[in-house]
Amino acid sequence: MWTQYLWNLLLVQTSELIEWAKCGNDYVSTVPTILWAIGASAFAHRLLVSMFRRFMFRRVALWELVLQHLLFVWMVLYSLHFWHVSVGLIKLFIDYCDEEGEILIDEEKLATVNIMQQWVIWLFGVSPLAVYWYTRPRRSSPPIMIWYLTPNTMSRSYILMVKENIAMQLHISVKSQICVK
Asked: pTM value?
């Protein structure tokens, strides 16, 4: 009995979620919402990781972990609400810009407006993924050291020998000046 109730609830909620995620008339129009959710969650994760840097031997308190997870969920949920409002505003703006005072709109013009809306929505839906990709950490070059300048082992040993020789001469000259005084 209760399994049937849970199954019906799951089906109803899934269909409502799909209807909410649609940005057009067909089921393919749910893809921009999915792309937005993936990009927003990846970018939110990157922001939280940069805010709460963890070091290997640092003990992390439970409240800090709970705070990180709550912030992540909050960022993703409000991002999806922003997405839903943005889709409505995009559709309204394109309808307003395309309106020329005509009372009757033919099928061809309506199809053109729908295609334009879907293009803008798809481009806007990919923007969090683009921001995530653009803000990825880049590799930095290692600092220049003597080993990179002289790859030959003979050159390295010669340089070390010269350094030791100079250090010994400085040490002897400092010693002799101390002894003379």
From this structure: 0.66
